[in-house]
Automatic annotation (TrEMBL):
Pfam families linked: PTPS_related (PF10131)
Keyword Transmembrane included in the entry's annotation: yes
Protein name stated in the entry: Membrane protein 6-pyruvoyl-tetrahydropterin synthase-related domain-containing protein
Residue spans crossing the bilayer: 45-62, 69-88, 94-112, 124-141, 153-179, 191-213, 253-273, 282-303, 315-336, 348-365, 496-514
Domain of life from the UniProt record: Bacteria
Membrane protein 6-pyruvoyl-tetrahydropterin synthase-related domain segment(s): 51-379
Alphabetical list of InterPro entries matching this protein: Membrane_prot_PTPS-rel_domain (IPR018776)
Record key words, sorted: Membrane, Transmembrane, Transmembrane helix
Species this protein is from: Liquorilactobacillus mali
Record carries keyword Secreted: no
């Protein structure tokens, strides 16, 4: 069974578009031709696809498509566990408390919401690397200068997963940074390392950023799915109620929230606040402030006409308290164990009971979700690997001038000899789309049902032909010859430079990490 999350078909089509391109040897498909209505939609340029490509690769190893997708989701849960455990150990947590913190985060209610209720794969994947990002910032601000690459690595992976999550995290990190620079000393050193991390982030993310910026500068686009932040903000009472019920659903009486385990941490954190370490206290404060601000208690109407409006839904901020409450939870677990005699058997029993409690809450939420008919996709989606080929949200990355003609593009309406013609014979292949109707083959001038983008080129009989921008904002091709028309995405110099720069930067990160491990082993 597949859960019919908010973005299920959209994300699944992304996964299988990439899979089909990989099967033909195309690693970075910028033009999506098998899915999204077969309108040569350039989603690969505007929506990061590096991390979700891993799920596409995993699906090759499974006979059933849906099984492969969920195996990919499980894989990133494992990676989340490893990364969170590693960063908590870097923060000085004991092995047992690091395990608890990792499980608190990996099986948190909001991560479950992203994976199943919303099927928001971009945000779900981005949350995998959030611990690295926050640890990197902490390392710089606390004087652990050699660990600055963690900020760049974490933020790069977030950016290569989901742009809106990266934007939200950037805002929160900047606010934390401003407060720190005001209240603490050594500002120049901190600023230098932050700038270094920033440059490294740009370089490592260039494989996505360069093509993205190139298209954005080429022509105007509408804001993707603009919403009223204040109107869509959830009530604080609704969020608390949903958390107490450990709900992963959203309807007239339920809201997306942080879950029961986070509420328990909020209560215990307040009781034992004085006993927490300084970083845990700061995590508790930041998490609680962001949790409150993600609700309707914050005057979101004041930010409606600012760049912040692009976040669409204020509950996206819940990714931050989800992580930070897990950090606090790990600290509370350490406090609890240290308050007893160090009897390993007793500590082990307590450890197991805590893990069972966390996983039981998660399992209970999933059971409730599985019984809700609105979240069960069958028979709308099956395990046969077929794409849904939906066209919803294709307006998001269609050029502003062409959006009013988008319905014509979706219906494959071309203009030949000043007459509208609905094309029937459309052949998709890796990173290209062929139009083989007889009228297309015989025409010399065709206004194709494909929006005009930079680096989109057309071929006839293997030869490149002239392309102009039509009055519809579409591709207008002219050729005196006869034959089918094939459009492709031609990777530009900027695309190649971005890819090369990213590869070199990531090689540098690997070298840094290996040298750091060797240096640590020598010291130990």
């Amino acid at each position: 069974m597949i859960f019919n999350g908010d973005d299920a078909w959209y994300q699944i089509d992304r996964i299988f578009e990439i899979k089909r391109n990989l099967a033909h040897g195309v690693f970075m498909p910028f033009m999506y031709t098998f899915t999204f209505g077969q309108i040569a939609f350039p989603l690969g340029i505007f929506y990061p696809q590096i991390t979700i490509s891993v799920i596409s690769v995993i699906t090759f190893f499974f006979k059933n498509a849906v099984t492969g997708v969920y195996a990919g989701i499980a894989f990133f849960t494992l990676i989340t566990l490893i990364i969170t455990y590693y960063t908590l150990r870097k923060l000085g947590k004991s092995s047992s408390s690091a395990y608890v913190g990792a499980i608190l985060y990996a099986f948190a209610t909001y991560r479950t919401v992203d994976a199943f209720s919303r099927f928001a794969m971009g945000e779900y994947l981005a949350m995998t690397f959030l611990p690295l990002c926050f640890y990197g910032l902490y390392a710089i601000l606390s004087g652990k200068n050699k660990d600055w690459p963690y900020l760049a690595i974490g933020f790069s992976f977030i950016l290569l997963s989901h742009v809106l999550t990266a934007f939200i995290i950037a805002i929160v990190l900047c606010i934390i940074l401003i407060f720190n620079l005001i209240l603490q000393d050594d500002r120049i050193r901190k600023f230098q390392y932050l700038m270094t991390a920033g440059v490294a982030t740009i370089c490592s993310s260039a494989i996505f950023l360069f093509p993205f910026i190139e298209q954005r500068l080429f022509q105007a686009y509408n804001i993707p799915t603009p919403t009223n932040l204040a109107k869509n903000a959830q009530t604080f009472s609704g969020m608390v109620t949903s958390a107490l019920e450990n709900s992963v659903q959203k309807n007239l009486v339920a809201s997306y929230s942080v879950g029961l385990t986070s509420i328990i941490i909020i209560i215990l954190g307040a009781i034992f606040f004085k006993n927490l370490k300084s970083f845990e206290k700061l995590s508790y404060i930041i998490a609680t402030v962001v949790f409150i601000f993600s609700s309707a208690l914050f005057p979101w109407s004041l930010l409606q006409s600012t760049p912040v409006m692009v976040i669409q839904y204020t509950f996206r901020l819940l990714a931050i308290p989800t992580l930070l409450y897990a950090v606090v939870g790990a600290g509370l677990f350490d406090l609890f164990l240290n308050s007893y005699d160090k009897i390993s058997r007793r500590n082990f029993v307590v450890f197991i009971m805590v893990l069972i409690g966390i996983l039981s809450c998660w399992y209970s939420s999933m059971q409730k979700l599985a019984t809700e008919s609105q979240y069960v996709a069958a028979p709308a989606m099956t395990n046969d690997g077929n794409i849904s080929n939906g066209t919803m949200y294709t307006d998001q990355y269609t050029p502003k001038h062409a959006t009013k003609f988008l319905n014509d593009f979706i219906k494959h309406v071309a203009i030949i000899d000043n007459k509208k013609v609905t094309l029937k014979k459309i052949k998709p292949s890796a990173n290209q789309l062929a139009f083989t109707d007889k009228k297309v083959k015989n025409a010399e001038k065709i206004d194709l049902p494909v929006a005009y983008y930079k680096n989109y080129v057309a071929y006839r009989n293997g030869k490149r032909i002239q392309v102009k921008k039509s009055t519809r904002g579409s591709m207008l091709v002219e050729s005196k010859g006869k034959g089918a028309i094939t459009i492709r995405y031609k990777y530009s110099v900027i695309d190649f430079l971005g890819a090369i720069l990213s590869v070199l930067t990531w090689v540098g990160f690997v070298v840094w990490f290996v040298r750091a491990k060797i240096r640590k082993n020598v010291i130990d």
